[in-house]
Design a protein that fits this description.
Bound molecules: iron/sulfur cluster
Structural class: alpha/beta
CATH class: Alpha Beta
Helix content: 40-55%
Number of helices: 10
Shape: globular
CATH topology: Lambda Exonuclease, Chain A
Distance between the termini: 18 Å
Oligomer: single chain
CATH architecture: Alpha-Beta Complex
Order of helices and strands: EHHHEEEHHEHEEHHHH
């Protein structure tokens, strides 16, 4: 269990799953390079977070809700959450509905976190893990069950459902543990040049062609073992 001052950003999970070195460069060494893709991503999140809560066809929608999980040691914001409490009187606020519902009633609610992403659906789990972490935060904070969520991709503009399976939850918990290991231990892994480097905004700071030869994977593993 983590304390509030130990919480790390949920968004860092995405950097971690993209490349552990990129994650450490951003969150340990505080390096960041804005490019067209990162700027578009920030803009999309800002748009998703802006705006008032609303109700549409019985679905209540909140934006930019702060989240945290002391079990995972993570905190962040949910772009959009759709709430479908079945029998809440008109005029009752969502906060009041959450406060007055019994645990059994809350577990019957349909709650769907929706994350907005520029670009296409990815082959790896980085977006799904980020969304799953949001769901785990909500479950822990509100004593609810969230079996699934959705990611809205900009290309093409479509919504992809995400099932929070036991496997995805385990991947998310492992990623959160690894994130703490890297950031709390202030460990920056050596570069390993892969196809991902072509899309990495930090490629000119990381210099994978140079650095991947200067620090061996063996030395990196020894450093982790020494620190644990
Ligand atoms: S350039 Fe490659 S190795 Fe370096 S941080 Fe980016 S993805 Fe990772």
């Amino acid at each position: 269990m983590f304390s509030e001052d130990q919480l790390l950003p949920i968004s860092a999970l995405q950097h971690l799953l993209f490349c552990e070195r990129q994650c450490a460069l951003i969150h340990v060494e505080r390096l960041w390079v804005e490019n067209r893709l990162t700027a578009e991503g920030q803009q999309l999140h800002k748009k998703a977070h802006d705006g008032k809560p609303e109700s549409r066809d019985g679905v209540r929608i909140t934006r930019g809700l702060p989240l945290h999980s002391l079990n995972l040691g993570l905190a962040g914001q949910a772009d959009v959450i759709e709430w479908e409490p079945p029998s809440v009187r008109l005029g009752t606020t969502l906060a009041a509905a959450i406060r007055t519902a019994t645990s059994v009633e809350r577990h019957r609610w349909r709650i769907t976190p929706v994350e907005y992403k520029r670009g296409k659906s990815k082959h790896n789990d980085c977006d799904r893990v980020q969304l799953c972490a949001q769901a785990i935060c909500l479950e822990e904070m509100l004593d609810v069950s969230i079996p699934s969520g959705a990611i809205f991709y900009g290309e093409p503009r479509r919504r992809e459902p995400v099932d929070f399976s036991p496997e995805l939850r385990e991947t998310t918990a492992n990623a959160a543990r690894r994130l703490h290991q890297i950031i709390d231990g202030r460990l920056t892994p050596p570069a390993v040049k892969t196809k991902m480097c072509e899309n990495c905004s930090l490629v000119h700071l990381c210099l994978p062609n140079v650095t991947s030869h200067t620090r061996s994977a063996k030395a990196w593993i020894e450093k982790i073992l020494d620190a644990t």
